[in-house]
Amino acid sequence: MESEHYAQALDAIYQGLAEPSGITDALESIRTLIGAEGATFEVIDTAARRPLIFHSSGVASAEGDDYLAHFAPRNPRLPVALRQQRGGLSWDYQVMDEGTMKRDPFYAEFLPRAGLRYFLSLVLDQSPQRLVAVTLQRSPRRGHVGTSEIALMKRLTPHLQRAYGMRNSLIAAGGRDIATAVLDLLKDGIALLDPKGAILHANPALHTIATESGLFRLDSRGIQFGSSELRSRYARVFSTVMRDDALADSDAALDFLAPRPSGLPACTISLRALRHPRPASDCPDAAVMMLVHDPLRDSAAAHLLQDLHGLTRAEAQLACALSAGMTAVEYAAHRGVKVTTVYTHLKRTREKTGWRSVAELTRRVHQISIRLRES
Q1: In angstroms, rounded to a whole number, what is the distance separating the alpha carbons of residues 215 and 226?
Q2: For a tag on the chain, would you pick the N or C end, based on fewer CB atoms within 10 A?
Q3: What is the spatial distance between Cα 319 and Cα 347, in angstroms, rounded to a whole number?
Q4: Given this chain, do its domains 2-172 and 178-293 carry the same CATH topology?
C-alpha cells in the first residue's frame, strides 16, 4: 500500500508542477503520503522576505491575513532555509527548541491560529533574489517529523527537483510552441511530419534512438529505414494514416515492430494522424506524429523501480530489459559485462522486490509502464 501511495505521489508531482492549476493536487498527494495537515509551494522574495507566489493544500493562503504585514519578515524558519543549498531539508529542531518556540511570536501567535506548529521544508531553488520551497505543515498533535518522514522527503526530493526543472524549461521556451517544447522533454522518440513525410520537428530522443539502434536515419526527405521490409511497412502505415477514413481503422494497424538485426528487443513504431493542427503552432503543416519506443533506453519505469523497491540503476535497467524480452546472455553482451554479473543483479532484484520469477518481473514492469503511459 505504501508503494502504491508513493507511486501516486510521483504521478501527482510530475503532472502537478507542469501547470499552475495542478500544484495543489501535487501538494495534497505529498502531505497525504508523508503525513501533515498542510503543504505549501512558495516563491519568496529574499530581500523583502515575502512570498511572490503561494500555493497551498490544507492551509489557508498567506494572502488576506496579517502574515504578510507582520509575521513573514519575522519567520524564524526563513534564515535556516536561506542557508540551505538547493535540495536541502530543514525542520523545527534546526530552528529552535520547544522553550524558544513558546516565546517566539511566529510560533506562539501566528501558527496557533491555523492549528499548526511544526514543519519540514525542501529548498527547490535558491538565488540571491528568491527562494523556492515546498513545506509540510504539521499540527501540535502530530508532532515533530521523525527520521522516517525525513527519509521519505529525501526520496521525493530528486523528483520534485526534476518536475520543477521541467516546469522551468517550459516557461523558458518563451515564444516556442508549448507542444514542441513538451515533446523535447520526452524519453520516447517523436517526429512531426508533413503530408509527404518530411520532418518538421524531431525531438532529441529520436536522434539518439536513430544513432543507437541503426534502424533508421533522419534526413531532409524524412525517416529513412535501413531494410527494404521496414521501408515498405512504414510506407503502408503512413499511407493508411493519411487516408480520410484512417480514424475508422484499428490502432493496431498504425503500429509496427522494427526488429534489430542483432536480435535484441525491437523498437515499436507508432504513427498517428494529427487531424487539427493549430495555426499558431511551430509546425502548422504537421499531419502525422511518429512515436518510437526503444525498450533498451533508460525509462521512467526504471526510475520508478529504483524508488519503489530500492533497486540500483543497474538492477532496474536489467529488470526493464528482461521484461522487454532480452535474455540474461543477450543483456550481458549488450552491456559488455559478464553473465555472472547479470545473474547477481537478477538475484538481488528478486530479493528486494519479492518477485519469484522472470515472468512475474515482466508482468510487474509492464503494469508500471502502462500506468506511466496513462498518467
Answers
A1: 6
A2: N
A3: 11
A4: yes
Contact in structure between 368 and 360 (CB atoms under 8 Å): no
The span from the CA of 166 to the CA of 339, in Å, is 37
User: Looking at 27-41, 82-96, 119-133, 360-374, which range is the least confident one?
Assistant: 360-374
Q: Is residue 169 within 8 Å of residue 181, measured between CB atoms?
A: yes
Fold of 300-374: Arc Repressor Mutant, subunit A (1.10.10)
Q: Which amino acid is at 199?
A: I
Domain boundaries, the chain: 2-172, 178-293, 300-374
**SS3 letters across 305-354:** HHHHHCCCHHHHHHHHHHHCCCCHHHHHHHHCCCHHHHHHHHHHHHHHHC
pLDDT number for residue 278: 46
Assigned CATH for 2-172: 3.30.450.40
- The percentage of residues in the chain with a pLDDT greater than 70, rounded to a whole number, is 81
CA atoms within 13 A on the CB side of 208: 14
| Number of neighbouring beta carbons within 10 Å of residue 42 | 21
C-beta of residue 63 within 8 angstroms of C-beta of residue 120: no
Q: Which pLDDT belongs to residue 36?
A: 93
C-alpha cell at 297: 533506453
Centre a 10 Å sphere on the Cβ of residue 265 and count the other Cβ atoms it contains: 22
Q: Which residues of 275-305 are buried (b: 16+ CB within 10 A; e: fewer)?
A: eeeeeebbbeebbbbbbbbbbbbebbbbbbb
Q: Which of 145, 121, 123 is nearest to 135 (CA)?
A: 121
Question: For residues 230 and 258, is the Cβ–Cβ distance under 8 A?
Answer: yes
Grid cell, residue 52, equals 511572490
pTM score over 0.85:
no
For domain 178-293, give the fold: Beta-Lactamase (3.30.450)
Q: What cell does 249 get?
A: 481503422
Strand (E) or helix (H) holding 239:
helix 228-242
What is the C-alpha end-to-end distance of the chain, expressed in Å? 19
